[in-house]
Amino acid sequence: MIASKIFEKTLLGFLAPIRAYLDDPTVSEIMVNGHEQIYVERQGKLALVDARFESEEALTAAVRNLSQYVGKPISDQHPILEGRMPDGSRVEAILPPIAAGGPHLSIRRFFRDTLTVNRLIEFDALTADAADLLKALVVAKCNILVAGGTGSGKTSMLNALSSFIPETERVVVIEDSREVQLQRSHVVQLEARPGNAKGHGAVTIRDIFRATLRMRPDRIVIGELRGGEALDIVQAMTSGHGGCMGTLHATYPRDTLTRIETMALMSDLALPLAAVRNQIGSAVQIIVQVARLHDGSRKVTHITEVEGFDSEKQAYRLHDLYVRRYSNAAGGPRHASQLVPTGQLPTACSAQLTEHGVRLPREMVRIARNRGNETPIELA
Q1: pLDDT for 378 beyond 60
Q2: CB-count exposure of residue 370 (10 Å: 0-12, 13-18, 19+)
Q3: In Å, how far from its chain's centre is CA 133?
Q4: Mean pLDDT across the chain, nearest whole number?
Q5: What is the extent of the structural domain holding 270?
Q6: Quick one: 270 and 358 in the same domain?
Q7: Are residues 77 and 164 both part of a single domain?
Q8: Which class for 155: exposed (0-12), middle (13-18), buried (19 or more C-beta within 10 A)?
Q9: Sequence-separated contacts (24+) of 213-216 with Cβ below 8 Å
Q10: C-alpha span between 193 and 205 (Å, rounded)
Q11: At residue 290, what are phi and psi to the nearest 5 degrees?
């Protein structure tokens, strides 16, 4: 423990030029583009700051010290480093010659105050009614993916959704680098491990996923889908492991499904594309789309239900349950927006909602009925 504390202080000493920003609660990300150029992000906006490292060698020494702290190699043969700071903040570092302008370092801040659903409502990231719908979908063990671009708040949304998981359930979390902070007590956190300098000893997300299936999980959460493990979780979703959740990079709900297609095809199982699409259409039930808007705010833009894959039209059947509407023209000082129900009701998920005895938000049901869309009395 003492050695670990000394190591932490040593690391922070190497990072002295950006220490003030590491301690600043308003900074969400620090980006070091070579030793002379440093940007920070506050409230979704980037700003160039006056801080500098003394030299390229000083920045390289900081990165190498960081690699020792996280226990992962970085060198000419392994020029990319992923890891965590002592406080849990995520780190990505790249050395030359991959980074032509000198070492690059990006630190995504870790905040100990977990972003709750109530805080998201306060920030207008979603509405109370939309939160009630998400609660119903999580309790009913619908399979949910949170999608969005870089820095859009995917992990924060996933953490918030976890608060709806019943305390009686066992949740297994699988990640490349630990970021997810589930708001539950019975959580098993598992983390992938890269190989050593000789490429030995790697443990992939796929390796952990297969082991997880024998650990009696009530729910499986994958921090971020990046590759062939997408097919594994799709198959788990369709084979009795309901309530799976995860995040991935995608711009719109339909893009989310095509991204999963691409990742599933990266698997070592040579499945026909038609089979992959049918499994995805059956497995993924809800997409929560998040985005960072032009003013830097992070919002939920869509809550979309997946009804399956239409083989004749060669397209996924989707319908939006909630969408974000913008009230003033592009180019204005700030877009006023609101997440509103579309009048559509869950159909593919309705049996699960009924089975778990949950009800849909009143406003959602009222608007649906005004538009002639009826819902089973059990969900009203």
Answers
A1: no
A2: exposed
A3: 19
A4: 87
A5: 117-379
A6: yes
A7: no
A8: buried
A9: 213/241, 215/172, 215/188, 216/170
A10: 9
A11: -120, 155
Which H/E stretch holds residue 220? Answer: strand 219-222
* 96 and 243 belong to one structural domain: no
Compute the chain's Rg from CA coordinates. 22
What letter would DSSP give residue 283? H
Cβ atoms of 323 and 301 within 8 Å: the answer is yes
Are 335 and 365 in contact by the 8 Å Cβ rule? The answer is no
CA distances in angstroms from 235 to 1, 120, 190, 282, 336, listed in the order given: 42, 32, 20, 10, 40
Answer whether 305's CB lies under 8 Å from 297's CB.
Answer: no
| DSSP conformation class of 32 | E
Cα gap 239→233, rounded to integer Å:
10
Element (H, E) at 325: strand 315-326
Q: Is the pLDDT of residue 256 over 90?
A: yes
Q: Are strands 286-292 and 298-310 parallel, antiparallel or unpaired?
A: antiparallel
In the 3-class helix/strand/coil scheme, how is 295-317 assigned residue by residue? CCCEEEEEEEEEEEEECCCCEEE
CA–CA gap between residue 84 and residue 305 (Å, rounded): 34
The model's pLDDT over 154-203, given as tens digits with 9 standing for 90+, comes to 988 999 999 999 999 999 998 877 778 887 889 998 888 777 666 677 78
pLDDT band, residue 87 (cuts 50/70/90): confident
**How far apart, in whole angstroms, are the C-alpha atoms of residue 298 and residue 321?**
19
Give the β-pairing of 298-310 and 315-326.
Answer: antiparallel
Instruction: Specify which residues 175 forms β-bridges with.
Output: 191
Q: Residue 11 above 90 pLDDT?
A: no
Closest CA to 33 of 92, 110, 86, 111: 92
Among 44, 38, 285, 255, CA closest to 153:
44
At which of 89, 108, 127 does a domain end?
108
Same domain flag for 225 and 311: yes
Segment 298-340, tens digit of pLDDT? 999 999 999 999 999 999 999 999 999 987 655 554 568 889 9
Domain boundary among 108, 132, 158: 108
Two tokens, residue 336 = 């006023």
Q: Which amino acid is at 117?
A: V
Neighbours of 175 (CB within 10 A): 19
Q: What is the CATH number of the domain that holds 334?
A: 3.40.50.300
Tokens 């979309």 belong to 304
